[in-house]
Fold each of these.
Amino acid sequence: GGSDEAKRRAGERAAAAVEDGFVVGLGTGSTTAHAIRAIGRAVDDGLEIRGIPTSFQSRQLALEVGVPLTDLDAVDGVDLAIDGADQVVDDRDAAAFGALIKGGGAAHAREKLVDTAADRFVVVADPSKLTDRLERSVPVAVLPDAHSVVADRIRALDGEPTLRDAERKDGPVVTDNGNLVLDCAFGRIDDPDELATRLSGIPGVVEHGLFVGVADATYIGTDDGVEVRRY
Ligand code: DER
């Protein structure tokens, strides 16, 4: 991944968009972690906000830095969601400009719920995430019982599914919601919207990592500043 300095710049720029009284979606991953820490500092300085975490990790970090927490049932809406991504389409001429692949952290089911519930969803990224076309594997969260059947359906879509193994646990990664993850390689994805629709229609798929037409902006941390893309 990219430099931590670039990630920090992106995260802190996004945190600066958080206004008093906001309900903020708190994304998952190392880039958003910088935003959460910056929000924690703003809360220490008197900012009054409530955060909705998108994973066990973002909840733990928010508690650690003192961001007051709430949930979707307890609020009338989400003003701003801040989250990272694994890939961001940065070709202005592409129909998929601003489309994302997310799910590297296996948190994409709750991320997509919170990110799309927000009035405004901004991505924080370093330059290594930018691409002309989406081409990474698409993480697909599946009901545990469904992983073999869904894998067959992915192959029928010319994808190559791999059940995501855990590192420090025997067996597969299990998400915060108790699901498994198939990382599905499709090569270059020229029409992510069409693939997203197909993936969503497969029984047993809980959520996939294609976020198309969802992000409102991306803050890209560079070595000497922040670039902003608006979609
Ligand atoms: O899981 C996700 O979608 C996360 O946002 C993640 O993949 C981005 O993580 P990073 O900011 O640590 O690269």
Amino acid sequence: MSKKKAAKPAPKKAAAKKSAGKSQTIMTENRVFKPSAEFSKKARVGSMAEYRRMYEESIKHPDKFFGREAKELQWQKPYTKVMEWKCPNAKWFVGGKLNVSENCLDRHLVGPNKTKAALIWEGEPGEKRVLTYQQLHREVCRFANVLKRNKVKKGDRVMIYLPMIPEAAIAMLACTRIGAIHSVVFGGFSAESIKDRVLDCGAKIVITSDGGYRRGAVVPLKKNVDDALKGGDTPVETVIVFRRTGQDVHIEEGRDVWWHRELEYVDAHCPAAVLDSEAPLFILYTSGSTGKPKGILHSTAGYLLHAQMTCKYVFDLRDDDVYWCTADVGWVTGHSYMVYGPLSLGATSLMYEGAPNWPENDRFWKIIEEYAVTVFYTAPTAIRAFMKWGDEWLKKHDLSSLRLLGTVGEPINPEAWMWYHTQVGSSKCPIVDTWWQTETGGHMITPIPGATPTKPGTATLPFFGVDVAIVDDLGKEVGKDEQGKLVIRKPWPSMLRGIWGDKKRYHETYWSEFEGWYFAGDGARRDKDGYIWIIGRIDDVLNVAGHRLGTAEVESALVSHPSVAEAAVVGRPDEMKGQGVVCFVTVKEGITTGRDLADELKKHVRKVIGPVATPDEVRFAAALPKTRSGKIMRRLLKQIAAGEVIKGDTTTLEDLSVIAQLAASGED
Ligand code: WTA
């Protein structure tokens, strides 16, 4: 970054004016915001020179760099080697033994952190709970004993389908205590999605609750589990039910037990299992470009180290911080940055149940004021929604406790960045725009808040140990400002260790496009300062309000409907959600199309995948545009969905009249 370019923050008015016209600003954005001297002075990494020195060491001497960082974990047995790599299999901290729950809990019980808040929780109806490290430790040990009592053993898979309540974190940590592998499923997924996942990972036990609250409604979690397990053709032997909403639920004799009842049989003593550095820690399902969601597997030592390290360097978390990550625990962000990272570091992590606009549009700001939140991490889609709802919701609250802001999930447009900076952060808080993925386990490209001058819309530079390149189809690095594919050329501690049960797919999906390099599925470009601008997914994965959704998954849900002959799903730019889901559908002989069928198909997708996948629009046509070899021309469909004039080569199109039809088709 040349000094000349680093300007002072633009005054509010000028900034607002300048940021009008979104796509053009991304390419020409040149506002630079340096961290304040005050922030840098206190930060762990206080200058670009320091960042560069550390980064270089992490790349050239990973053994030394990560060996030093790993001293900050509590080991049951020291490792003998930092890393072993034979593509695509990585082993970190070979031979070491440790336990995640011990690192997140027990080690904080000596010294002042014992009585410090580990989790602060606010439920949607307004209940509040604080669990100190000591209390959380006790609850985790008790529940780990409940799992043992229900015959859960090391290596068994445990599915967790809970609302945003402390019990979700308790259940996760209890699994880690005994070496069971958890797989958390987001509450917005349907019974069918639960069933698919249960079967794929071979879960023996499901932990759920009667229901959960969202925007004043009760989500019928237990009923979804019942539907998923109907027929008894799954490996699930036991369902543990937490009482949250108090509504009536079916209890299946011989299978279902109540969480609170089970606790009556156990004590609070549960030694932490001795686990290998590479012991599987959790499986988290995420969407890919083909077929069913993939069970991304993470393992123990490397994952925990990266989660802790990024909380330390990227969020700069300290003993007196009140840190709030608004993500749901069902996503990787909730895993790494609500539970494991902050707790491993001994920080205070806030968790909330509900939605940003319930009971009113100021839920976030109210919580920040009430708990004096200092470090706040949320998604661009939420920021854009708040912008739309108006500044008055924010103005009602004192947000002066905030000192650092973060975003994740999708590219943040400069307007939203500026609003976040000026309105939420009072122009004084650094913003860390963190690029990463379920597969990467933790932050990969991100500013270091006391060091990196930021620019609205870029995730800036790689984190320690992350060797990023932007390449063309042949693997050659592209030039400045040219778009290419984002790859990572070296293994990093928290990288995925595989796709559950599918070694071949693991290699093919991530390591075969450029043999030996990890291909992320995102497009990016580098600017003159070397900053990385993420363009977004270049595969058939959509990013809808920060949630990943495979077009193939939605297509397969659509064609499972009896009226549908063929379907193609594409994303369309959406101001709020980043992308909206547009479905092009052809129907079977004799089926009448129209709004009723469009609504029915939307409902059908919700039922099959879950509310997270609800299509924005369903369009009918007599045929889909295909090449002569029968491939659906998605490029055309994307243009049609976005209402653009069809550009580019259509010479391979089988039937040109199809385009005109599709462009004319709407829901009505
Ligand atoms: C996108 C979420 C731009 C990206 C942690 C990636 C981002 C996908 C950013 C992973 C960001 C995430 N800027 N794009 N700061 N963060 N993405 O697995 O396309 O749910 O591939 O992990 O989200 O989504 P996932």
Amino acid sequence: MYGNDFGPPEPAGVTDAGPADLGGEDDATFLALIDADARVEPRDQMPGAYRASLIRQIAQHAHSEIIGMQPEGNWIGRAPSLKRKAILLAKVQDEAGHGLYLYAAAETLGVDRSELLDKLHSGRQKYSSIFNYPTLTWADMGAIGWLVDGAAIVNQVPITRCSYGPYARAMVRICKEESFHQRQGFEILHTLSNGTSAQHAMAQDAVDRWWWPSLMMFGPPDDASPNSERSMRWGIKRFSNDELRQRFVDMTVPQSQALGLTLPDPELSLDESAGHWRTGPIDFRELFEVIGGNGPCNAARLAHRRAAHERGQWVRDAAAAFAAKHATDAQGAA
Ligand code: 3HC
């Protein structure tokens, strides 16, 4: 039953793993439901390609959240005050929580989290390009919060209306937390920008380095985005990469003025008739290089993630042993 997991008894052929996939990706019944803005729930029938594309996007999103803990984790021990340290620690923990909700959402589609992590560790699934850049100064914590989390919000608020219910619902809480992250980044930069001339220069340098990579987070331009058309037809994506990128630019330029910082684009100008800020050309060769594994930190990020996973093996073993013991005790008591 679409949008209702507690419908009448399941028809023959439905197993615990959920109903079999619908055949074609353009199944008329399915598309009619999408057009009616209904939500697809885990035990609903869905085209196999829709399921596969959701797993691809949600897994990439989950991987981005946990890899995204690394660049900021780098500064927890060097935050300039106890208050800044506590805030940063909480933010990095939020990212771990986002990964958890998203892996759980992906699992409702019939994949196992360990399988997704294997794919991340072996490079068969991606994570966001943005986390392959280094965090060189404290001001990078501000630039990441303001620009990277700001871009994440613009990209992710429309996903709260995604056609797949568990993904949409996970995004509601994630977006609320991202909004706090964006504010704390803005506040760090505001403090630095209005501090000493050295602090102002540090803030400007961070913005100079993070601006273009933040624009690339939205993905390739629409005419080079193989997944967009189908994802939009299925209500997974509500807006195209370029539409969201433009929305981010329009939102961010006035904020940079409030911060007293410039954006590193001599061609940035206001198109008054359209009411949009226009950037100079974005060098998407850099995005494809980073996605292809050749960014400044790709190798270090994956090596760190693999090592953390291996070091956590004893926790997984202990949890499995506890669950097995609990199951045996429960059997004995029955
Ligand atoms: N980094 C890495 N890979 C990217 C990318 C990026 N910035 N942009 C696009 N790609 C990949 C796509 O995954 C796709 O590869 P695939 O077919 O092998 O999966 C390929 O490049 C072509 O791109 P498309 O535009 O066709 O791909 P999509 O339609 O999936 O659009 C997307 C890409 C806009 C990133 C979309 O997947 C999306 O909105 N995802 C959900 C949000 C997300 O994952 N955000 C990541 C950042 S999370 C974050 O920032 C955490 C926060 O705490 C800061």
